[in-house]
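hey so i finally got around to running the thing on that chain from the lab meeting. sorry it took forever, my laptop kept dying and i had to restart like 3 times. anyway pasting the input first so we r on the same page abt which one it is
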Amino acid sequence: MLRRLLGEDVALSTRLAPTTGRVKADPGQLEQVIMNLAVNARDAMPNGGKLTLETANVDLDDAYAADHYPARAGPFVMLAVSDTGIGMSEETQAHMFEPFFTTKEKGKGTGLGLATVYGIIKQSGGFIWVYSEVGQGTTFKLYLPRVEELAERASEPAQLPARPPRGTETVLVVEDEAPVRSVARQVLERHGYTVLEAPSAEAALDLAARYSGAIHLLLTDVVMPGLNGRQLASRLADLRPDARVIFMSGYTDEAVTRHGVLEPGSAYVQKPFTPDAIVRRVREVLDR
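ok and heres what got predicted. didnt touch it at all, straight out
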């Protein structure tokens, strides 16, 4: 899935430890962390490059912690995400975790990706150390505390997470970024759905007019060139009045409703989404 998100010009490399310690963190949130950092790295390599994921068990001592604020001593699991992109200046690094701060051109970034990463890691008891040089690339090192398994819980049978729900309905995916559109299609088809896709609202309306089968749900980006997602949903309702709608955007649902982009209560999923999040949201809206 990451390879599709990164595109053909970015090589993906991994250096994963054979085993790592346990951490106390939500798996879905950690997946979102990796996807956010991968998207950030991809955008920092407009001419292609290399993304490297690395994991390791590390034990930080007091000397390291003293020289690497906000690090602290102790046993951790380290996840590093490195790119060979344009790098960041010291000024950018000073603001990179602030909500809505972005160096990307208008319409290309929300400024929430790194803020979300920071919030998830902090909530999980960890910290982030960033190495970056302009023209050389960036490495984000995420440190999560290793935790010991309680003896009484070790004897309990493991609780397997519930499988994401499947479906057979037809979903129209509209997204101007080809890698995101491809990931959404792959995930939904893997869970039984028939997927139609379009790179713009105009193409989606043309497809909906020509397609002879039912379209049960529209999954559309909010901000696109030409008609936006809300305008698309309104026009599609004339062609397909029974189709449900889910909007997706890099902004939080609170932000898009507060700024009047969407009506309060609109079905919504935040990008970059995890596979579990998107299939559960689709099923939830279809079952209403």
